[in-house]
Structures are given as C-alpha cells and as structure tokens.
Amino acid sequence: MDKIKIYGTTWCGTSRRVVRTFDEYQIDYDFINIDQDPEAEKLVIETNKGFRSVPTIFFPDGSILVEPRNQALIDKLESLS
C-alpha cells in the first residue's frame, strides 16, 4: 500500500474530524465509506475483532489507528513529514 486509507462513514463525527485533520495537514489519503462498500466494512470488522469501529486508518508503514484521539492522530501525521 502506498497511500493512506481511511475507512469511515459520512455520519460519524470522528470520521469527519479525522478527514478534516488530514486536509489541514495537506496529507493525501483515500476515504472509503464502509456504508457503501461491503468489502471495506468486512475489512474493518475483521481488523477490529468483530467491531465496526470507524475511522480505521491504514498507513503505508503497516500501522493502524482506530478511532484515534486528536493528539495521537497529530503525532502520527507529524511523524510522516
């Protein structure tokens, strides 16, 4: 994977906050709406041990953040620079 993938929903406040933060930091990503993509929903559920936790963010380095707090997300994004 060479691009960050954000799996979320449009109605989730945390998903919207994460997307807004990525945009503020001008970091490129793909947003996958799990309400519209059953395979993406299945991946999120498998990754989160049966839970439909969003956002679930996959990074090219293999790390994953799930429902990150603001500071954890900012720390990760700043480490990408």
Q: Helical region count?
A: 3
Average pLDDT taken over every residue: 96
Shape label:
globular
CATH level-four homologous superfamily name: Glutaredoxin
Return the CATH topology. Glutaredoxin
* Ends distance: 18 Å
Largest sheet, spatial ordering of strands: 2-1-3-4
Largest sheet: 4 strands, mixed
Computed structural class: alpha+beta
* CATH class placement: Alpha Beta
**Which segments are poorly predicted (pLDDT under 50) over 5 or more consecutive residues?**
none
Determine Rg (CA atoms, Å): 12 Å
How many separate domains? Answer: 1
Examine the secondary-structure arrangement and name the CATH architecture: 3-Layer(aba) Sandwich
Which series of helices and strands comes N to C? EHEHEEH
Helicity level, as a percent range? 40-55%
What share of residues are in beta strands? 15-25%
